[in-house]
Amino acid sequence: MVKGIPSSPGEGVGPAVILSERSIPPDMRVSSTDRETELSRFQTGLRVTSEYYRKTYELVKQRIGQDEADIFDGYLEILTGGDIEEGVQDALEGKPCISAVEAVLTFCGETADEFAEMDSEYFQQRAADIRDIGNRLAEAICFGDILDVASLSEPSVIIARELSPAYTVTLDLEHVAGIVTETGGPTSHAAILARSLTIPCVTGAEGALVAVSPGELCLVDGGRGVLERNISDERAKRVRENNRALKRDSELKREWSRNTEARLNSGEALIMKANISSAKDARLAVEAGAQGSGLVRTEFIFMSFNTYPTVDEQYEKYREICAILQPYTVTIRLLDCGADKPLPYSDQRPEENPFLGERGIRFLLSHREILADQLKAVGRLHSEGFKVQAMIPMVVTVAEIRAVRAILQDIYPELPLGIMVETPASVLRIGELARESDFLSIGTNDLVQYLLAIDRGNPRVVNLYQELHPAVITALDRIVTAARDADIPLGVCGDMASRPETILALLALGVRELSSSSADIPRLKELVTTLDIDFLADIRDELLISDFHDQNLRLLTQRIDDLTGENGT
Amino acid sequence: MIEKTLEVGNEEGLHTRPANKFVKIVKEGQSEVSLSKNGVEAPGKSLLKIMKLGIVQGDKITVRCDGPDENEVMASITALVQ
Questions:
Q1: How far apart are CA A284 and CA A196, in angstroms?
Q2: A-B contacts at Cβ under 8 angstroms
Q3: Chain A residue with minimal CA distance to B12?
Q4: CA atoms within 13 A on the CB side of A140
Q5: Nearest CA distance, A128 vs chain B (angstrom)
Q6: Span A23-66, pLDDT tens digits
């Protein structure tokens, strides 16, 4: 068993497909016969590799589009344009003659190094492409073929050191049962993709490549973050049957959710929205019956570009999302990079305390052109009649709201502007902040971590990360009251809006708008539609006088058990 | 032989895709083409060498065309680059 980081929940089984550059045997790198033999090996490898890129080009053109495919046409040109051939021929002139593989890897390695030293960020990143071309070519010379991930014959577990965007575009996703990467974390490219496609995924699984042999039956448990090898056929069969049942069940639940209003049993209306990062997520949200989005994580949209996206580029991305979610409101969180989500192309330097560092609005106010561009993109959508609003992350003072308003004043003064309530300072000054905001949204993950001074990534203190701690309950109660006094909408978009016990607490305290991941919506809607307002009022009273997290948790778990018992399910 | 200095207006500069288009224009024509930036020259048929020039928006590049269709080729290149 290999342990890693849970990155996309669910279980998947299938034979392992190891996606690494197949390691070149050391003797292929040094041994040599004579120049003519090595040259002819090179020519054969070149033919195989060209054929591979031609196939990839066709495949990407079909599956994704002409623009993305053209990149592979470029690789093909680099490969066949004569430069690599010339470089390899030169390298083979020396005595004693080196191997064709060595010549290819040396030439492409040196060329990649030259790109890595160029001024333009774009050209620096081409170094990886050139290395990739060299590795494929070496693989073809060595093995006579290239491991093709584009066609998997059966649902398979993909194991890789990392999954680059270039690999993922060619992956035959219909046949991916699970993804395991040795590097990365929940925000890596592979993890995001896996979550949006509901493929189980484990990242940071060090040692996975060595532990598993190709073809071996493996199980990926994305919820626990483990990869198990040498799975019995019976177990694999059970997992597959279970997955089929879950899939049928969740399709039925989604359909039910789409056709059912979010209301308490006693009649009060709720709003259930989805947290999303892309247009694809927006489609899943609609399928799950979400009423818009309470959180668009724009940092993931920014990460899909090689440099800061322009106003037009952002506008297109947000417009696509808003169009899918019409007629509901979409809340665009202004770029919240830094801390655990650094932007690869930003000028941010590593900080000693990134969670207390230049993140959220702090970053935006020291990069005003980026802030202004994002406001222009969102504002333009609003001016065109889309229901969209902007949300400021990491606010600690009204000065930050005013600074953003000042920019909007000259461009789109009508754009609704709200704040994410996630710092202790914002809770203590919530009345003042609410007066200057068009809406409030509680980001419970950071709020709990900052209120309790707990790093929930630290296993030694993670048991003290308590979402039902009396301090959290008091904070939530204050925020609800402030929103009511200011007569502005209040939502919750953190993890607390995704689990039955904590939702019960939020509703009891008076929250009426929840934003969770799309996958959770049907299940949560099932719960909330059984609740009565009096039942919630009782819970509120108990929560407000309790001194202990454990007591609150027991109370809520008990109430949920009572409910499900009553329904006989 | 004709020579022309062009300012790169293309937002992407000569990234993989536009540079590949450049090479295609050259290969479809019959003229010899070269381009240079800051005195460093690359043959118009070599995508890798063109990319190594690292041409970005706003750069000034000098293009030389020599052959029977040099004017047509230069016109196509100008349209692509500017």
A1: 8
A2: 51
A3: A122
A4: 24
A5: 13
A6: 677 777 775 678 888 889 999 999 999 998 898 888 778 766 77
Residue A189: per-residue pLDDT = 62
Architecture of domain A2-20+150-240 in this structure: 3-Layer(bba) Sandwich (3.50)
Q: B23 in contact with A at a CB cutoff of 8 Å?
A: yes
Partner-chain contact B52 A122, CB within 8 Å: no
CB contact under 8 A, A81 and B16: no
Scan for tokens 């003519």, then name that residue: A36
Helix H or strand E segment including A190: helix A189-196
Q: Is B16 on the interface with A (CB under 8 A)?
A: yes
User: Distance between CA atoms of A101 and A84, rounded to whole angstroms?
Assistant: 12
Compute chain A's Rg from CA coordinates: 27
User: Phi and psi for A366 in degrees, rounded to 5?
Assistant: -95, 0
Give the ipTM: 0.91
- CB–CB contact A77 B45 (8 Å): no
What's the pLDDT tens digit per position in A466-496? 999 999 999 999 999 999 999 999 999 988 9
Is the CATH number 3.20.20.60 carried by domain A264-566? yes
Q: Is A82 on the interface with B (CB under 8 A)?
A: yes
Partner-chain contact B46 A118, CB within 8 Å: no
Identity of the residue in A67, A84, A126 whose CB atom sits nearest the CB atom of B51: A126
Q: Among all residues of A, which ones are annotated catalytic?
A: 189, 493
Chain A residues touching residue B15 (CB < 8 angstroms) = 122-123
Tell me if the domain spanning A26-143 has CATH number 2.40.50.140.
Answer: no
User: pLDDT tens across A270-296, in order?
Assistant: 999 999 988 988 999 999 999 999 999
* Cα–Cα nearest to A38, from A87, A98, A81, A83: A98
Asked if A74 lies within 8 A of B16 by C-beta distance, the reply is: yes
- Walk across the sheet containing B60-66 and list its strands: B2-7, B60-66, B32-37, B40-43
Name the phi and psi angles at A243, rounded to 5.
-60, -40
In whole angstroms, how far apart are CA A507 and each of A47, A314, A450, A528, B6?
64, 35, 22, 9, 65
The structural domain count of chain B equals: 1
Q: Please give the structure tokens belonging to residue A285.
A: 């949200």
Determine whether the interchain pair A78/B48 forms a contact, defined as Cβ–Cβ distance below 8 Å. yes
Tokens of A401: 């709201």
